[in-house]
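Researcher: Structure for this, please.
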Amino acid sequence: MSKPKFDLKPVQQLSSHSVLIWRIVQAAVWLIGAAILFCLLFFPSIGLLLFWNILIPVAPALLVVGTGIWRNVCPLATTNLLPRHFGLSKRKKLSATQLGRLNLIAVIALYAIVPLRHALFNNNGIATALLIISMAVTGVIAGFFYEWKSVWCSGLCPIHPVEKLYGGNVLITMPNAHCDLCQNCVVPCPDSTPNIHPKSSVKTIYHRVSGLLIVGGLPGFIWGWFHVPDEKATTALSALIGVYEMPLLGFATTLVVYWILSIIIQPKFERRLIGFFAALGVSCYYWYRIPALFGFGSFGDDGLLINLRNELPGYCIVMVTITAAIFFFYCLFIKKQNNKSWLIRPQFADKQGRMKSKLSV
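Model: Predicted structure, token format:
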């Protein structure tokens, strides 16, 4: 496999005015996240609607178009980076092996948590709130010890593997609104490496396995997930286990297909294969998610935002889902790699943390 290209373009520093604007935006999004968390705890029906049926359905498309937007304003990231912003972090750096292990844990966590939506999280506001709080606490604790985004945002976060898969050919590059100087805390940096993807780094067995599992397994996992109804009240162990059967069956199927194809094709076409599976995954998500949001889903009110079944003919939803699939396949598979990163790399810092006068790599 060819080595990933690193961003050698001129760096960009945000002006104090731009930093202020981004801090206002981050604070606003953080307050929205806090409001959703409050609703999950005290008004669960509203909180579940806002979180699972509005925020989460928007996320995959946002990652395809501009992963850096989410990386700048994610409420969890804003919370987890507070120790670093306030100078309270010990600023340790991870080894390649440590980061690889975190990446693998993140992939496993994603596949373990998502099926539990059917059994628990989709219908339990307190459980969903506790899940969010536990992730925030984990990230903040890590932030007191490790540099910038290395442990949570680029390591343990279960969303990060999806960011790298769907953000492989973004349309929009943003300034980095968190890192004032690049400390090389993660190599390759997911924010600053053009067209990064889950297999950009193969430094350790953990990197290789995590890349294989997320690229090959996610499309089938998504397909299987949408073939399981929500459990209104999970009281039996068999019901809890049952929510994993179809997702894991789909996961295993596409994983095997991807593994075989990755052996057969020439290395120069591997990036295109990854793009195909990324497009397949996000297209599959919206193929089922869009109908469910508007009352055309397979399981009644599961995932319902607003019921338009009596107002819209079914072919309208089919046209929307087909259009979405065409868009995602164009962005991730058909369109030429644009050599864009999620965020513009800030100036590099020297060993004492000061800005270097010249760009170096």
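Researcher: Any notable elements?
Model: Residues 1 and 267 are 5 Å apart (CA to CA). DSSP finds 13 helices and two strands in the chain.
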